[in-house]
TrEMBL record:
It comes from the Eukaryota. Its main location: cytoplasm. Belongs to the small GTPase superfamily. Rab family. This is Ciliogenesis and planar polarity effector 2. InterPro entries: P-loop_NTPase, RSG1, Small_GTPase. The keyword Transport applies. GO terms for molecular function: GTP binding; GTPase activity. The keyword Transport applies. It comes from Neolamprologus brichardi (Fairy cichlid). It is found in: Cytoplasm, Cytoskeleton, Cilium basal body. PANTHER family: CILIOGENESIS AND PLANAR POLARITY EFFECTOR 2 (PTHR14983).
Length: 248
């Protein structure tokens, strides 16, 4: 599936625009990101009707690349200072308002992030099928400070491109980009990878701020690719149904 050009489906940096404040205020509490439980959601006033679209996201990558940290970052939570292997499956709910470029329609995207420790996946056969079940997108992580995690990306992509796997959005995220003194992956490698696989590589790292800017590009890119996939799928489904009607 083709990747939409950045900013072609959703309004980029909409969080900076005045008309977004009413929506983004619902995911903030005292100027910090509000944490949502599994059954919680942003509450808009009655006169503002906003649809919510739900997506399941699996975070994949070697142990230590920062899977738990990126889930915390995207949710606006504190990143653990010490690395501990995730012992089972952890889920994190992230709400993100988006304005569609073509229609100016506003949607709340509800991302349920699934994070599972690498050792747990190896030990318990049922965990990976649970993570893959009805999944909409996978974030494939590598660390800029761990060359082997970058070299393993083609193997990870191959697993998610098998015919038995339902169509999922695939995005690659490089973590610990701020630790450039210890960087094991060159910009040339990133460019070559993007040209070969046709998948954008996003970068993250550094301290989490109270603002929205350090996660906006990643969450907007995720929303854009998921909405684009849904539109392509819906288009092919309606085309198929029209063909069926014609045949009848």
């Amino acid at each position: 599936m083709s990747v939409p050009p950045p900013g072609s489906v959703v309004v980029a940096d909409w969080h900076r625009y005045k008309d977004s404040k009413e929506y983004f205020s619902k995911i903030l509490h005292k100027k910090r990101r509000r944490n949502f439980g599994l059954l919680e959601s942003p509450v808009m006033p009655p006169h503002v009707a906003v649809d919510t679209v739900h997506y399941k996201i699996f975070i994949s990558g070697k142990s230590g690349v920062g899977k738990t940290a990126i889930a915390a970052r995207l949710a606006g939570m504190n990143i653990p200072s010490m690395h501990h292997e995730t012992t089972g499956i952890e889920t994190t709910v992230v709400y993100w308002p988006v304005k569609l470029k073509e229609s100016s329609r506003v949607l709340f995207f509800r991302f349920q992030l699934w994070d599972c420790g690498e050792n747990a996946l190896r030990r318990f056969d049922h965990l990976l099928p649970s993570c893959k079940e009805q999944v909409d997108a996978v974030l494939l992580l590598f660390s800029f400070t761990d060359r082997t995690s970058f070299d393993d990306l083609p193997n990870q992509l191959a697993k998610w491109s098998e015919p038995s796997v339902r169509r999922v959005v695939k995005m690659v995220v490089g973590t610990k980009f701020d630790l450039f003194m210890h960087c094991d992956v060159a910009e040339r490698d990133i460019r070559d990878f993007q040209e070969t696989w046709g998948i954008p590589v996003l970068r993250t790292g550094g301290e989490v701020t109270d603002g929205l800017g350090d996660v906006a590009s990643l969450l907007n890119c995720l929303a854009e690719n998921l909405w684009h996939q849904d539109c392509v799928t819906a288009g092919s489904a309606s085309h198929h149904s029209q063909e069926t009607v014609t045949l009848l």
